[in-house]
Design a protein that fits this description.
globular, alpha/beta, binds S-adenosylmethionine, Rossmann fold, about 45% helix
Length: about 230
């Protein structure tokens, strides 16, 4: 199958794997995925105002939203194109002002300058239209608002560690992932989506061109799993 970021294809794939999504995240990342999200939110702890209004975009089953609750938001929205992923998110979160919204990153159903924080974990490389989605994130953030992205970026270095890791990512991970999820392709797609994504430095360049500032890279695992933090000018 040739690689695609078609929105319907992606939505159906995440609907399909939603029941095993959390379990497989833990297994396939060696229980690191929670630590990566926690570290991302730690970056915001001393930086945001009291009671921020937060958007967790491409929230999936809500694991980042759960971490973001530590910021004691006045309102928090988990937004995603997959209704089934959001269904699991709703069951996991019991917070008075938490809302789930079916929404596409390239057409956010929010007014301008609405959020203090927008965060995306492991979702941005799936966006059908990355530039439009980044412009939408910029639009809905307040001036000075924080934008955080944790993602698997296409690694640059070609050393032994990288080659071993890519072997795991392209062979072992799809085998285990497809077997446990029951999907014939979803975890091949995961590895293809990384190979077809940007390096962290290319991603930062685009983010800057769109209009974000104070862009910083925080490495979690080589230049592969990174969190990018920045601000709306
Ligand atoms: C790998 S999951 C990440 C979920 C969650 N953020 C996490 O950290 O586990 C990617 C999510 O992005 C969502 N997604 C993909 N493209 C999207 C888009 N254009 N707009 C909104 N959500 C999208 C998928 O439905 C899926 O739930």
């Amino acid at each position: 199958m040739s690689f695609t970021r078609d929105k319907e294809f992606i939505r159906k794939m995440f609907d399909e794997i939603s029941p095993s999504y959390d379990r497989l995240n833990r297994i396939l990342s060696g229980f690191q995925d929670r630590r990566w999200r926690k570290k991302a939110v730690d970056l915001l702890m001393s930086e945001v105002n009291d009671k921020p209004r937060i958007l967790d975009l491409a929230s999936g089953t809500g694991d980042l939203s759960i971490e973001l609750l530590r910021l004691k938001p006045s309102e928090i929205y988990s937004a995603d194109i997959s209704e089934k992923m959001l269904g699991i998110c709703r069951k996991k979160i019991n917070y008075p002002s938490h809302k789930t919204v079916v929404a596409d990153s390239s057409e956010l159903p929010f007014e301008d300058n609405f959020f203090d924080v927008c965060a995306v974990s492991f979702g941005i490389r799936n966006f059908t239209d990355l530039n439009k989605s980044l412009s939408e994130i910029l639009r809905v953030l307040k001036t000075g608002g924080r934008f955080l992205v944790t993602e698997f970026f296409r690694p640059l270095e070609n050393n032994l560690t990288r080659r071993l890791f890519m072997f795991y990512f392209s062979n072992v991970l799809p085998f285990i992932g497809n077997k446990i999820s029951g999907s014939s392709y979803a975890y091949d797609y995961l590895s293809d989506s990384v190979n077809n994504f940007l390096t962290v430095s290319d991603f930062c360049r685009i983010t800057e061109d769109i209009g974000f500032t104070e862009i910083k890279i925080h490495k979690n695992f080589l230049d592969f799993v990174c969190t990018i933090s920045c601000r709306k000018k």
